[in-house]
Amino acid sequence: MLQLGVRSLWSHEAWTRLPPHRSLLTPLSFLYRSLHVYPDKVAVVDGLRRTSYAEFAGRVFRLASALVRRGLRPGDRVAVLCRNAQEVLEAHFGVPQAGGVLVPVNIRLSAQEVAYILEHSGARFLVADRELADLAAAGCKAVEAAPSVLWVDLGPRHGASGAGPPPDLEGLNYEEFLEEGRPEPFPPPLEDEEEVLSINYTSGTTGRPKGVMVTHRGCYLNALGEVIEVHLTPESRYLWTLPMFHCNGWNFPYAVTAVGATHVCLPKVEAGWVYRLVEREGVTHFCAAPTVLVLLTTGKPAPEYRFPRPVTVVTAASPPPPAVLEAVEGMGARVVHVYGLTETYGPHTVCAWKSDWDTLEPAERARLKARQGVGYVHAPELRVVDEQMRDVPADGETLGEVVMRGNNVMRGYFRDPEATARAFEGGWFHSGDLAVVHPDGYIELRDRRKDIIISGGENISSIEVERVLYRHPAVLEAAVVGVPDERWGEVPKAYVVLRPGAAATEEELVAFCRQHLAHFKCPKRVEFLSELPKTSTGKIQKFVLREREWAGRERRIG
Fold first, then answer.
1. CA 248 to CA 246: how far, in whole Å?
2. Which of 102, 364, 462, 507 could be 95's S-S partner, Cβ–Cβ 3.0 to 4.6 Å?
3. Spatial CA neighbour of 132 closest among 150, 157, 158, 159
4. Category of 161 on φ-ψ map: left (φ > 0), alpha (ψ -120 to 50) or beta
């Protein structure tokens, strides 16, 4: 049987050459264990398809052996351009099982950006969603050595007919490709746990995207960190609202598999679908950026809706306004607030909750939970420092840069030693985020360095202003940026999306802010928009708003 064959993996030379007190840390071992323990349990729900751990592992080994048969060598890159689906989970295990390096690609990038990632990574293969065939084709055509394409068709399992790839871009059907492989377990060609498992490209908002290299060891430890911090168990059912291409889905492909829990795939985030799957599939966990939380709270099935069971919601991507956290917990959710970057495998800190806080009023609980907190249990090395790398005082007021090191930090940027050296200056990874340290040691972000507003020599946190705006009953979303001002250099301006059916004026919102903030921090102007520009993971793109205001002028950041 398949689960019995996995036992031979532990006698593989890569493990037996180590002393008895050591083993290679790789998230592949999570699949081996769950295959052995839970072969008949449902591993993946994807539309109409339900796949057991034995079936899932067999497909992973088929993918890996087929890649090797087609010439994939250790260290070769395999890109994935696909919506959340079982095949993306399979690639997270199958590519490293074959010795390859996974390259997840953001499905909302332009063809030029996709082409750059394929070229820069040197991808040999591309697993592509047929719904994204035009984007895949345009990206491949712009690459000198185009990768071999494996087409994935998600349509039939979601009740739709499949759409074929463009006739001028050849490729193989993913299912037919799997038939070339064998389902039996085999030892991965892994010699060192520090080998690169995946390259995740940053958003590239200030230049070309950089390829963040993460390792087998790092993914293994980060996955265990997720298991501990969000309380995953074999009974958990994890809904894929978070794009798997974003920081390897914060390593939840490995964390969920590690405990033998169930993945529930969701190709597109829509409030109605999320609530239906929560009800129908018994969902217990999902991740969501604050903007997605806003989407869910405004798209509730009923005004007084509460989740049918305890649901853990992990939020990150941007500092969540306390008002949004309060609304989500009002539906019966347990919110876990985390913070990190692509360079830290996704989450690096968590607002570790204390039972003493449970007795506080909801608004006060939300204010505390909005802090970024402390390092994960496996990655506690976290500081807030000044320009001389000295720790700032824990007074809740003094700004400094968040720096990290240790188990949760990338190996470096792929083919970019200069950028790697800059990021690791002083022996710590520099996040570019500004924060304060509270007397209890918890950190709280105030802004990105580039987002801080310097008005007349005073630092203004755009996040602080946004949190006040979110408290106004008419405000659905808000973003605050610094705009040019002849007298003060720059002043805050708010961009606001109103709730459906709500009304508010510029004067009303400015007056509301003046009730809760020092007047110099309040927006001098408010512009109402139908929607805010966002990344694929729901993070508001302030740079788009700021660049429009500063076109043709130079902005200096102190």
1. 5
2. 102
3. 150
4. beta
> How are beta strands 148-152 and 429-437 bridged, if at all?
unpaired
Q: What are phi and psi of 89, to 5 degrees?
A: -60, -40
Q: Is 277 helix (H, G, I), strand (E, B) or coil?
A: helix
Q: Give all domains of the chain, ordered by start, each with its CATH number.
A: 53-214 (3.40.50.12780), 269-448 (3.40.50.12780), 454-550 (3.30.300.30)
Helix H, strand E, coil C: the string for 57-101 is HHHHHHHHHHHHHCCCCCCCEEEEECCCCHHHHHHHHHHHHCCCE
CA 358 to chain centroid, in Å, comes to: 28
Structure-token pair, residue 264: 């529930």
Q: How far apart are CA 495 and CA 532, in angstroms?
A: 8
d(CA 186, CA 57): 11
Alpha-carbon distances, residue 322 vs 11, 122, 362, 442, 538 (angstroms): 51, 43, 10, 16, 17
Report, in angstroms and rounded to the nearest whole number, the Rg of the chain calculated over CA atoms.
Answer: 24
> How many CB atoms lie under 10 A from the CB of residue 281?
16
Query: Smallest Cα–Cα separation from 558: which of 462, 479, 483, 453?
Result: 453
Q: Which amino acid is at 111?
A: A
Contact criterion met (CB below 8 Å) for 25 and 2 = no
| Cα–Cα dist 255/338, whole Å | 16
Torsion of CA 326, 329, 334, 340, to 10 degrees: -40
Q: Is 42 helix (H, G, I), strand (E, B) or coil?
A: strand
Each residue's pLDDT tens digit in the chain (558 positions)?
Answer: 565 566 666 666 767 788 889 889 999 999 999 999 999 999 999 999 999 999 999 999 999 999 999 999 999 999 999 999 999 999 999 999 999 999 999 998 889 989 999 999 999 999 999 999 999 999 999 999 999 999 999 988 877 665 555 656 889 999 999 999 999 999 999 999 999 999 999 875 556 889 999 999 999 999 999 999 999 999 999 999 999 999 999 999 999 999 999 999 999 999 999 999 999 999 999 999 888 898 999 999 999 999 999 999 999 877 788 888 999 999 999 999 999 999 999 999 999 999 999 999 988 998 999 999 999 999 999 999 999 999 999 999 999 999 999 999 999 999 999 999 999 999 999 999 999 999 999 999 988 778 888 887 677 888 889 989 999 999 999 999 999 988 788 899 999 999 999 999 999 999 999 998 888 889 999 999 999 998 766 778 888 998 888 886 666 544
Residue 242 sits at φ, ψ, to 5 deg, of -80, 130
- Strand, helix or coil at 286? strand
Decide if 256 contacts 45 (C-beta within 8 A).
no
